[in-house]
Design a protein that fits this description.
This protein is an alpha+beta fold. The protein has 8 helices and 12 strands. An 8-stranded mixed beta sheet has the order 4-3-2-6-5-1-11-12. Strands 7-8-9-10 form a 4-stranded antiparallel beta sheet. The longest helix has 16 residues. The structure holds N-hydroxy-L-asparagine. The site of N-hydroxy-L-asparagine has 14 residues, from strand 8. Keywords: Signal. GO terms for molecular function: hydrolase activity, acting on carbon-nitrogen (but not peptide) bonds, in linear amides. InterPro entries: Ntn_hydrolases_N (IPR029055), Peptidase_T2 (IPR000246), TAT_signal (IPR006311), TAT_signal_bac_arc (IPR019546). One of its GO terms (cellular component) is cytoplasm.
Length: 306
């Protein structure tokens, strides 16, 4: 136990998410409650890439992926969940109220409704609708990677809009316990039914309280390929620092992808059980937000490989 809470989360939306988490942690709350509260802020913000404001799949449906994990290997997730505002809270219910870890699609929605979550309108946000119509003109299914997000430039499949703002958030509470959360609308204009890394325990998120926690954002397929978050936790177990472990995972993706590595982005954040944190990305443009007990909540540019 460190006595010093800390929160780390992905991209610039992480700053607001960290504030949400901090409201739980500062008065001595539990890391699990903090990681849920933190990303709920982002889910409610209706941004491009998390929650119901997210870009749809290529059939025009917003399908949400999320997972959560606590300090005792309890975990839950939902994938391809539609018309529910807070997938992270449904993921937590899967963890706490079912014998399962992952519910998908219609079954996940049924469960959410049975748990009292309201069914939201079947409607794209104005921005998502505009982007979708634009995308339909070519209907080119080719995920384009967000490599310059830090200054809100290029990227994305449509009109310079970024497509990569999954929020993943890791926290340690004053008791020294770790938890993590991850939530996203996934890659814009993905195939219907496509599931990324973000709801998958071990890929998008992993927590081992005796070692540390890790989470991912970027091209989900290439995070799944290396079981990214789990790999990073195992590397920290072997003694690597959070940043070195994230870097080793990025290097593994780069090795596998060879010359195609330039076409994708993968990014990792990690937090060990001593409260040390770090991040690493394949390409320039990834940033992450860190809130520490000195009261500071800062956005940091990640180092990168290429
Ligand atoms: C996915 N990893 O669905 C997610 C996308 C992402 O920031 O991270 N966006 O593959």
């Amino acid at each position: 136990a460190t006595g010093q809470p800390v929160v780390i989360s992905t991209w610039d939306a992480g700053l607001n998410a960290n504030r949400g988490a901090w409201q739980v942690l500062q008065p001595g709350g539990r890391a699990l409650d903090a990681v849920e509260a933190g990303v709920m802020v982002t889910e409610a913000e209706q941004s491009c890439c998390v929650g119901l404001g997210g870009r749809p799949d290529r059939d025009g449906r917003v399908t949400l992926d999320a997972c959560i994990m606590d300090e005792q290997f309890n975990c839950g997730g939902v994938a391809a969940l539609e018309r529910i505002k807070h997938p992270i809270s449904v993921a937590r219910r899967v963890m706490e109220r079912t014998p399962h870890v992952l519910l998908v699609g219609e079954g996940a929605q049924q469960f959410a409704l049975a748990q009292g979550f309201p069914l939201e309108p079947d409607k794209l946000s104005a921005d998502a609708d505009k982007d979708y119509r634009e995308w339909l003109k070519t209907s080119q299914y080719k995920p384009v990677i967000n490599v310059e997000n830090s200054d809100r430039r290029p990227v994305g499949p449509v009109g310079g809009k970024h497509n990569h703002d999954t929020i993943a958030l890791l926290a340690q509470d004053a008791r020294g316990n770790l938890s993590g959360s991850c939530t996203t609308s996934g890659m814009a204009f993905k195939m219907r039914g496509r599931v990324g890394d973000s709801p998958l325990i071990g890929s998008g998120l992993y927590v081992d309280n005796a070692v540390g926690a890790a989470a991912a954002t970027g091209q989900g397929e290439d995070v799944i390929r290396i079981a990214g978050a789990s790999l990073i936790v195992e590397l920290m177990r072997q003694g690597l620092s959070p940043k070195a472990a994230c870097k080793a995972a990025v290097e593994r993706v780069a090795r596998i992808k060879g010359s195609k590595a330039r076409d994708i982005q993968v990014c990792f954040i990690a937090l060990n059980n001593r409260g040390e944190y770090g991040a690493y990305a394949l390409q320039k443009g990834f940033n992450y937000a860190v809130q520490t007990a000195d009261g500071k909540n800062v956005l940091l540019d990640s180092e990168y490989l290429l």
